Structures are given as structure tokens and as C-alpha cells.
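Q: What would this chain look like folded?
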Amino acid sequence: LKYKASIPLGTFFGDKVRGQYFEFFPLGTGRQDVYTRGPMVLHMLRYMLFVTKGNDDVYWQLLREFNARYKGQRAGTEEFIALTNEIAGFDTTWFFDQWLWIATIPKVEWSQSIEKDGGSWILKIDAKQPEGEPKMKLLIPVEIKFGRQEVAEKTLKLDDGSGSLILKLHAKPKKVRLNAYWDVLADIKER
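A: My prediction, written as C-alpha cells:
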């Protein structure tokens, strides 16, 4: 059974939804859904390029160039990876190796601690993939809410299955969420 619902802009489980409509697929169930995974890989590529380059320009340049270069021709995965490396200016093979050739959805467990430090607050986030899971390189968005309007976004990097993020904040956060808007295909749970 596949769940798909279009929800108008507003709230979804108490949180603001980005964009005009939000389509909910069974990503969080851990099921392997080939129809969801392909678009999610492209979305994660966009996020990875955004994190490394600071904007979406390289991602859109990649898609335009791929369409222009291979218009009316056959082009496959290898051509797309080679063009991604060329346009990004660095080797992205690791990204495609783990998202195209490994069929698992990674699991991540995380914890947080918040401590007062003079007039500031120290937020520490630790995350790891459980034992027995394939260790993947992940870029996980962290959303830090201070109040109704004030939100900070950072990226937690997991390399070889674990990672930490330590931030000095001006105020105590009201809420910390990882992967709030599904920028990475992963089953992420707070411990």
C-alpha cells in the first residue's frame, strides 16, 4: 500500500510545509521504493552541491548542460557522473557509488546536548550509523529553531558512519531537528 497525499501550504504535523504542495511518500517506513529513490538521489545531489558550492547554480548548470550535450542521443549514468564531476569541479563518484549501487536506506541515530556557556549556549550533536549497517558519507541538514521566526540551518557531516557538530549559539534553541525536509534519504532517529 502506497500513501500519497497532496497537502496545501499550511501545517503538517505542526510544522510549516515548504512550497505550494507537499507529497508524502513512504520514505520514513524504510521500504525500498524505486519510484521515490531516483528523484531523491537527484534532490540529494542538489543538496550536496549546495553545501559544497554555497548555492544551486552548479546543480542547474549540470541539468541544462546534460540536456544540451546529449540532446537527441543516448546518455546513461556514466555520462551523467562524468558531467557532474566536470561541472562540480571535484570527484562526486563517492556520492553515486553509495546512492546508485548500494540499495540500502541508511539508518542514523543521533543525540544532542545543550549547555550554558556564559552568555551563550553550546549545542553538541553526535550522530552515528548503527553497527552492522553499511557506513555511508552523509550530509544531514540541521534545523535549529529559536522562536517563531528565527531559524538557523547547518549541515552535519557523517564520514565513515559517524559525525559531530558543535555550535556556539546566542540563545537556547527551542527545537533541533535533523533532516526536517527530507534533504537526505535516511531513517534518522533521535536516541
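The chain has four helices and eleven strands.
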